């Protein structure tokens, strides 16, 4: 590890962008948008000057919008511009479900989709353990999702920023790419006709391999979950439209 310059991006298989203005206590990810968009103007143009064949992996918040900005500014194929999405949210979600039910979270199948942030959607309708429905009350579900969604804010209030969990999530994505795993990960990618949503980056389950996002996976959702997902998408699209992209 060393401090270099943009020329060091030449020949890189993956370029991770985690730069940006720090999220302040009480500040939503969307509030970061205008400050980080200006920073990305310089970063993306500088990276693409030296590299046209790698994969851009975006971690800066708000990650879905910054991933969309990176895709537009880079001109790269959509499969090679990926956001960390709701991978971390889904991992926390499964962990908390497993903790409540005393089950290894690796045996819990559950998804958080949509924005990585305030409008993210828990897909309770198909959440399961070995195919069996979860034995959770509505109050328990509400508590689990609230703790999942607000985890980053709690960490920021405690120590000023998030570091370690997102680093693990990025490591997982990089491993899937470099080892050509064809792993299903909840990353942020451009969705097209995904439950009626198009032309926006959102966290959804994707097959990730050496090419980046090989395939976006669709699954059934309840009507309420679909409506929440569309609202999450609308929120992102309104921000993008306001930027004039």
Describe the fold and architecture:
The protein has 245 residues and is an alpha+beta fold. It has helices spanning 33-50, 63-74, 87-101, 138-149, 151-159, 164-178, 223-243, and strands spanning 14-17, 55-58, 81-83, 108-109, 112-113, 121-122, 128-129, 132-133, 183-191, 200-209, 212-216. The protein folds into 2 domains: 6-83, NAD(P)-binding Rossmann-like Domain (Rossmann fold); 87-243, L-2-Hydroxyisocaproate Dehydrogenase, Chain A, domain 2, CATH 3.90.110. β7 and β8 form a beta hairpin. It is globular, with a radius of gyration of 18 Å.
Topology:
Layout: E1 14-17, H1 33-50, E2 55-58, H2 63-74, E3 81-83, H3 87-101, E4 108-109, E5 112-113, E6 121-122, E7 128-129, E8 132-133, H4 138-149, H5 151-159, H6 164-178, E9 183-191, E10 200-209, E11 212-216, H7 223-243
Parallel strand pairs: 1-2, 2-3
Antiparallel strand pairs: 4-7, 5-6, 7-8, 9-10, 10-11
Helix pairs in contact: 1-2, 3-4
Output the keywords.
245 residues, alpha+beta, Rossmann fold, L-2-Hydroxyisocaproate Dehydrogenase, Chain A, domain 2, 2 domains, three-stranded parallel beta sheet, three-stranded antiparallel beta sheet, 7 helices, 11 strands, globular
